[in-house]
Structures are given as C-alpha cells and as structure tokens.
Amino acid sequence: MPNCNHTNISSATFLLAGIPGLGAESSWISIPFCFLYLIAILGNGLILFVIKTQKNLHQPMYLFLSMLSVTDLGLSASTMPTVINVFLFNNREIGLDVCLAQLFFIHTFSVMESSVLLAMAFDRFVAIRHPLRYASTLTTSRIGNIWVASITRASGLHIPAVILLKRLPYSRVRPLSYSYCLHPDVMKVACADTTPNNFYGLFIVFSSLVLDSVLIVLSYILILTTVMGITSWRKRLKALNTCVSHICVTLLFYIPLISLTMIHRFMENALPQSQILGTYLHLFLPPVLNPIVYCIKTKKIRKQIMKIFQKCSTNKF
User: Fold this and answer.
1) Distance CA 60, CA 140 (A)
2) Which of 156, 169, 170, 189 has the maximum number of C-beta atoms within 10 A of its C-beta?
3) Which of 3-17, 156-170, 173-187, 215-229 comes out lowest in average pLDDT?
4) For residues 76-100, average pLDDT
5) pLDDT > 70: what percent of the chain?
C-alpha cells in the first residue's frame, strides 16, 4: 500500500504513462498505434459487413465470428481514446470516474472475448463430433442466448470490481503504469488495504478466463479423440483444418493474457517493460490479427472480401 494523503474520492486524478525511455519521441509512437487501430477497425468492420450482407454466411461458425469481431472492436474502442491522447497530445491526466469506466469496459470486453472463444470451441466440437446434430444444436436462438449470457457474465463480474475500487481512498494525483486504466494498476495505488479487491480480482480471473481456457482445452481433447477415430487421413486433415483459425486466435488471446496475469500477480519485481509489453500484446494483437487470420484461413470469408474489392475496382474504372 503506497504512502499517500487521502483526498476526496471525486477529485482524485491519475496520470497515465507512456512507454519508458521514449520521452520526446512518444508522439511518433502514435503513428503505429493509429495504424493498428485503423487495421483493427477496418478488418473487423469488413468481416461484420460481409457476414451481414451474405445470407450464405448466416451459419453458427460465422455468427460466432461476428461476435468475435464485435468484442475486438469494443476492446479497441475502450483503449483508443487514452492511448491516442497520451502519445499524440501528451495529455496524461484522467479522472477517477473516467478511469473506472475505461477499466470496466476493457476487462468486460476481454471476458466477453474469452466467452466467444469458448463458444467457438463448442461450435467446432459439435461440428466434428456430432455433425448430424450440428444444425439442431446450434440454432440461431441458442447462439443469441450464448451472446446475451457472455455479455451478462462479463459485465456482472466487473460491476462489483468497479464498486470496490470506487470506495477506496486515493491521493489527489497518482501515476499509473500504462496509457489506459487496468484493475490491478488502479488497485495498487489506493491508500488503503486492497485485500478484498485482490481476492475478487482473482475470483474474476479463475471464474472466467481460467475456466474458459480449461474448457477450451477439454473440447480440443475430445475433438482430437474423435479425429483420431476417423480412418481416412484426408478426412482427418479436413476436420482439423476447420479448427486452425480458432486455435490461432485463441493462442493470440490467451498467451499474452496469461503472461500478463503471472507478471502482475507473482512477479512484483519484474521489469516494467515486460509488464507493458504483455499488456500491449494482449490488448492490441487480437483485434488486429484476428480478422487477418480468418481472412487467410476461411475460404468463404476470403472469397466474399475479394468480390467486394473486385467490385470496387471495377466501379472505379
């Protein structure tokens, strides 16, 4: 717990941080950040547009993909205002209420993405293990219920976390470690015992991200046992090939997240650069690379996107 003088909670202000060691060069860093945001918005927006306009893509796999794109857009929108403000305009101050709102949306969309990845793993499990029951199991109404459940779980878990942080006392100005607000970062600058907050944060991690990752691994164990029972190696490769995109985006999401969680919880003396790298990889890689992975590996998505570009080039000339 830091030594600090308590102040009125409503007047508490935090100072967001850039990247250590860059100093005056931080304004140039805004260029790649803006480029990454542009790719994330255009890529995920294009996937949503293609799925919405093409009726032959109104299938469970692509509906789950559209959910993933929505969460990626939400995750990018949650970090973009303060990141651009810090690196482009060098405006580092953020009020407590705005900071709490930002961390709520960042963590909520992270858990929603984890839920969607779990739903996509279930989609692949049903498609490979019970193909004849695929259409009757993953109906449009059930997919909608899964989407509502993921939103409810993610927001319901983080509302108490925000309330617990809101009740803590803070000094008038406290520096943070990142260019956006995260729950562990805000918690550590409070002027009070944060044991309840720490335990509740661990509860969120284990009841959502850890649980989802375990269930995803179990689903792929069952998928592999099913695939190994297929006699034709061509059919084996075809079945596994339908899982490649999901495996890639799952690794892109969980590997940086697990690394970041381990650093925050168990490596207090770790270099700040490792924490910053972990959080940037977790929040920036999935929204940027997920649409690229699915455009490359999913033939129907790639085909429809190529048609759009061909149509645009034809109209242009």
Assistant:
1) 7
2) 170
3) 3-17
4) 91
5) 87
Cα dihedral sign, 196-183-43-254: negative
* Residue 2, Cβ density class (10 Å: 0-12 exposed, 13-18 middle, ≥19 buried): exposed
Q: Which two tokens stand for residue 110?
A: 């992270």
CA distance 104 to 7: 23
Which of 162, 165, 186 lies closest to 174, judged by CA?
186
Q: d(Cα 232, Cα 238) in Å, to the nearest integer?
A: 10
| pLDDT tens, residue by residue, 4-30 | 665 555 568 899 987 766 655 566 778
d(CA 182, CA 178): 8
pLDDT tens string 104-133: 999 999 999 999 999 999 999 999 999 999
Query: Do residues 79 and 180 touch, judged by C-beta distance below 8 A?
Result: yes
Structure confidence at residue 20 (pLDDT): 66
Q: Which residues touch 37 (CB under 8 Å, ≥6 apart)?
A: 76, 80, 84
